[in-house]
Amino acid sequence: MDSTNKPTKLFWIISILALIWNAFGVFQFFVEMSMTEEMLAEYPQDIQNFMHHAPSWFTYAFGIAVFAGALGSLALVMRRKLAQFLLLISFLAVLAMTYYDFVMQNDVIMTAEFSTMPIIVFVIALFLLLFSRNSKTKSVLR
């Protein structure tokens, strides 16, 4: 049987905040998937264009990112090694989305207003991946 180390208070704070963050991501996914044309019409034209022209793989990557992130964060709270794998999958999906946002799409000019959230999502996904890897290395996860 593997021995595990007792998690620190910081581990619990980060894990719970990660779960809350990713729960908001799942909520946002459902909001965007249920958005009607009337709701979308309230957004600026460049955002409407972005939403209309995004390839289907971008939507799949969004779903994979938020659901793998939420399950990975739940696995962190449960102190399971599976967290690292799930957060890796989430990070790779976020990486694909970030690549599309900054390299492939032509509908939105990458202003500070538009680029802030993709950068924050990327940094948090990377942080959670590294945090889960470190927690596994320190035998906090079982």
Characteristic key phrases:
single chain, 142 residues, mainly alpha, 6 helices, 77% helix, 0% strand
What is shown here, in short?
With 142 residues, this protein is mainly alpha-helical. Helix content is 77%, strand content 0%.
How would you sum up this structure, described in words?
With 142 residues, this protein is mainly alpha-helical. It has a domain at 54-142. It has six helices and no strands. The radius of gyration is 17 Å and the shape is elongated. The N and C termini lie close together (10 Å). The model has no long low-confidence stretch (mean pLDDT 91).
As residue ranges, the low-confidence spans are none
Proportion of beta-strand residues: under 5%
Query: Number of helix segments?
Result: 6
Give the C-alpha Rg.
Answer: 17 Å
Level of helix content? over 70%
Main pleated sheet: none
Secondary structure: number of strands: 0
Q: How would you classify the quaternary structure?
A: single chain
Instruction: Give the structural class.
Output: mainly alpha
